[in-house]
Amino acid sequence: MGHPVTSHGKRASGRPVDRRIQRTRALLHEALGSLMREKPYDRISVAEILDHAKVSRSTFYVHFRDKDDLLASSMRALLVDALPLEREATPDLAGRMVAFSLPLLTHIQEHRRSARAKLGERGRAILHGHLRLVLSEWITQQMKADLQTQGSRRSRIVPEVLAQHVASTFVLILHWWMDEGLVRSPAEADKLFRALVMPVLQAQRP
User: Fold this and answer.
1) Which residues neighbour 184 within 8 Å (Cβ) at sequence distance 6 or greater?
2) Residue 101 pLDDT
3) How far apart are CA 87 and CA 100, in angstroms?
4) Domain parsing of the chain, residue ranges
5) Which of 92, 103, 161, 203 lies at a C-alpha separation of 20 to 30 Å from 19?
């Protein structure tokens, strides 16, 4: 539902947002995150989120369709905040498309104790499914923006299909990494992810 609000007080599009909207969304994101450290995602109700955030039900539905929409918004905000500032200065599109990987893996490792204790298999499947969709959406937007600036140059694969491939591969690596107990470093997991997707991404330019 619209662009996510980042911790910097801007939408993912870069435009500033009303402070009240920023504050309300931040409260709801924080409430969901806090509850997810206490219990599995699929056992959290909207009512519990509202109680933690001290936000009314009517206000919640002005911003989000449901709990899943809030989760997706939280993931988008995390993705935007996690991206390194130098990403935009990277001339290589393939490099920009995978810039999210190491920051996200590092974030997950830093929060691994609560995640492993509370997610459970079903909760992890739900979260990974949402992450796949959010990443696919973000990568598609970046690719289309690149195509517009590059004029006649075109990707050999439909952007949506390529984005789903990259996002699904990242979630596959994430799932494997978590099953191993996160014993490998984020850098090692990121290296494996890049080894699987970079050849495909780099082959898209004539």
Assistant:
1) 177
2) 92
3) 9
4) 19-73, 83-202
5) 103
Encoded amino acid at 176, one letter:
W
Among residues 90, 114, 81, the alpha carbon closest in space to that of 182 is found at 114
Give me the residue label for tokens 């490998």.
184
Q: Domain 19-73, what architecture?
A: Orthogonal Bundle (1.10)
1-35, pLDDT tens digit by residue? 444 444 444 444 445 557 888 899 999 999 998 89
Q: Give the tens place of pLDDT for each residue, 152-167.
A: 456 667 889 999 999 9
Q: What are phi and psi of 141, to 5 degrees?
A: -60, -40
Q: Which amino acid is at 199?
A: P
Least confident stretch, 18-22, 69-73, 110-114: 110-114
Does the pLDDT of residue 147 top 90, yes or no? no
Q: CB under 8 Å to 99, separation ≥6 — which residues?
A: 83, 84, 87, 90
- What is the C-alpha to C-alpha distance for residues 50 and 54, in angstroms, rounded to an integer? 6
Name the one residue in this structure whose structure tokens are 């970046």: 142
Q: What does the alpha-carbon distance between residue 154 and residue 143 come to, in Å, rounded to a whole number?
A: 10
* CA 101, chain centre distance (Å): 10
CA dihedral 137, 138, 141, 146 (to 10 degrees): -140
What is the Cα–Cα distance from 43 to 33, expressed in whole angstroms? 13
Contact, 166 vs 95, CB < 8 A? Answer: no
Contact assessment for residue 55 and residue 27, using Cβ atoms and an 8 Å cutoff: yes
